[in-house]
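Q: Start with the shorter request: fold the first protein.
A: Done. Sequence, then structure:
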Amino acid sequence: MIEILNAVHNIVSVSPEDLPEHPRERQTIYYSDEKDMVVIAGWGDDTGRIAEMIVNYLELSPEGKQKAEEYFLSSGEDFGIRINNMLKEIARIRREKGQFTMRTDEIRIFPCFADHPPKPEKMENKDLYYQAHGSFESGIILDGAGNLIDGYTSYLLAVRYGASHVPVRYGRRQTITASHRPGGTLYRWELPGLLVGKVHPGDKVTVKTARGFRRVTVEAVEEYSGQEPEPLKMVVRKGRMRRR
């Protein structure tokens, strides 16, 4: 039987008889890189305590790391060193993958998100996914200043369920200012992720408008400010529209 002990860090408890061939120890803690999962087995009443210590370590605060290291080292020198090295390796892998955790109450929310909450049906579907899988369907992505730029539904679920920390990644969002004709009125669109950093002033791009798809000339490219009064329409592609 598998029990999710901490959905944020993907820590699970597994019955010893359900363990794969490796590891064979009846009491064990190991990391599955394939599933990015910390597996705890055979610790009985101590399982929850161990999960708590692992969480303290992975949240990477100096106090949490010290508390976790003291606990594991008190369990026996060989065991403590082995587990401590494993936790350092997990932290290293997650940093290399761009995965970090952050205090939920330290995430900044742009007005464009706060003023346009997700539709109830969307939140319900995201909530059902969270309850079924123990993880968020959409990742939380922040800019370099800690502003949320994607994954608002996941942030709201974290707040709803009282999660003190959430997994985050860092990324970028960009907008363009462009006109339909030289000297024409300037409008704004958002670049999709695949075009971030690849569009420059003077480029021609295809955009979505209320009247269909149009080709425009880029006047300027800016980092997403989050001050837009409403969600922006997206750039469809760089270059010419496809002819049918």
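Q: Next, the second protein, separately.
A: Sequence, then structure:
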Amino acid sequence: MRTASNWKEFEVIDTSAGEKLERWGNVILARPDPQIIWNTEKGPEWKRANARYQRSNSGGGSWDIKQMPQDSWELHYRELTFKISPTGFKHTGLFPEQAVNWDFMAGKIRCAGRPISVLNLFAYTGGATLACAAAGAKVCHVDASKGMVQWARENAQLSSLQEKPIRWIVDDCKKFVEREIRRGTRYDAIVMDPPSYGRGPGGEVWKLEEQIYPLVELCAQVLSDKPLFFLLNSYTTGLSPSVMEYILGVAVGSRYKGVLSSSEIGLPVTKTGFVLPCGSTAIWENR
């Protein structure tokens, strides 16, 4: 497992009974996590939570706020700054475990010795976009949610990256890639973090297990002659790292010489010293 262990302002304090207790700067949140099936004793630190996200029996949920210092605040990772704000879907606008992937991508870009263009699909609030831009890449940031793209732009401003060559695109990722193929646009690196399930603006149903392979195949068509990496991330429990690695091997590795790898990614838990798994990543990279 690859662990995002370089955070200074974020930590997973403890995990138990379907919940994780996290410190986001000076704010402590308790959030549900269905994979936490162990029921260890919850110590006094759990009483320090400023807010707890409660699931509803009818679906969704809401925040039970005890005392919040502010509605939104900033969190820093290396040279990057992010706006954190609890949303109605239990999220905060950031997935801290992805820092291990940010570090990988930034390192590859800095060592490339040439200009690198990156396509970031399902780009959310821009963690990967900012990491790649800060490392010197030209980035195309694509997400279907106008609100998420605006949030990403705010993060770029907070990180003093607003003048970097970043294209901000609000669009369906598949349709955008199809147009890039017709336009003959090419990218040296691709990052994908697709959702497990969703609906498009026209009511289209997205199921990751059914659509991930054709989408990766499609994206492989916009890779340059000398691609640097293709990183595929997933939070779908039924999609193993090895399956994603196989998909990249067939769609990308059969066309370009490189190295394939895959693993779970996770976050260290302060109280126990163990690592909480938080998703899977498969990578094809040119070495």
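Q: Describe the second briefly.
A: The CA atoms of residues 68 and 92 lie 14 Å apart. The first helix runs from residue 99 to 111.
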